[in-house]
Amino acid sequence: MQVLRTPDERFDGLADWPFAPHYAQIRDADGTDLRLAYVDEGPRDGAVVLLMHGEPSWSYLYRRIIAALAAKGHRVIAPDLIGFGRSDKPTLRTDYTYARHVDWMSQWFTALDLRDVTLFCQDWGGLIGLRLAAAFPERFAGLVIANTGLPTGSGMTDGFKAWLEFSQSVPEMPIGMIVNMGTGRDLTPEEVAAYDAPFPDETYKEGARQFPTLVPVTPEHGQVVENKAAWEVLERFDKPVITAFSDGDAVSRGGDAIFQTRIPGAKGQPHVTTKGGHFLQEDCPDEIAAILDTMIRERT
């Protein structure tokens, strides 16, 4: 496996991004070592909040939420998935599989020995983060699920179909513009540039290109069986689960009902519908931070 690493100077002076990077080394099954970057803010003994981003964003998506939660005394951890942000970027689309991402993030998660974790997950952050919750349920104290799913081959929304077609046909993938199109507000030019920062050119975007094709929307996709097994675990998960889907996301609309119905811990919880687009973290960061803070304080 050949790997690219975005030059550090690409991340200098980003708008509203004062956080120092932390790094961990993980190893692919083929023996390749990969560097995974993550933010780790707040007191070491604070309640752990894990913020999982998706496609084609990076932990910059959580900048306001990180600051708000760290200020309330929580330990806030936000990784960059392999292929995104400051993390290493394999150069071939075929290097990116759903199974590999789950393995890579599982290695990182267990190496940090995180426990009593409150997870917030969106987009691919849910497809991967919920697999972590199913693999290590004893390590999670609560879940906040937003604009995501854990599909098992039963089809796709019209919104996702349109995104899939766009992502596979656009000659150059405009990362910052894609995030801007998925928010309810207009990002500033500086914010758009921050989303573009991890990708100096198209060769760095193979993960971003490949991710939409990996979502298991048909029975023939990889990880359908594994996601069904994960659902069996989640259907026994009785710790607090809150859905916080937004009102302006055509990709995931209606997906909150599945989690509310199937996960025991979702019963009787204060589920919310937020304002905003697919990347609701840009539209309602204060509301998201308040949901997470309240969940933690109500159990402690």
Structural write-up:
The protein has 300 residues and is α/β, with parallel strands linked by helices. It contains 11 helices and 10 strands. Strands 2-3-5-4-7-8-9-10 form an 8-stranded mixed beta sheet, with helices on both faces. A two-stranded antiparallel ribbon has the order 1-6. A hairpin with a 5-residue loop joins strand 2 and strand 3. Helix 1 packs parallel to helix 11. The mean pLDDT is 97.
Number of helices: 11
* Low-confidence regions: none
Structural class: alpha/beta
Based on CA atoms alone, the radius of gyration comes out at 18 Å
Strand order of the largest sheet: 2-3-5-4-7-8-9-10
User: What is the terminal-to-terminal distance?
Assistant: 45 Å
For the biggest sheet, the summary is: 8 strands, mixed
Percentage of β-strand residues? 15-25%
Order of helices and strands: EEEEHEEHEHEHHHHHEHEHH
Number of strands: 10
- The averaged pLDDT comes out at 97
Shape: globular
Helicity range? 25-40%
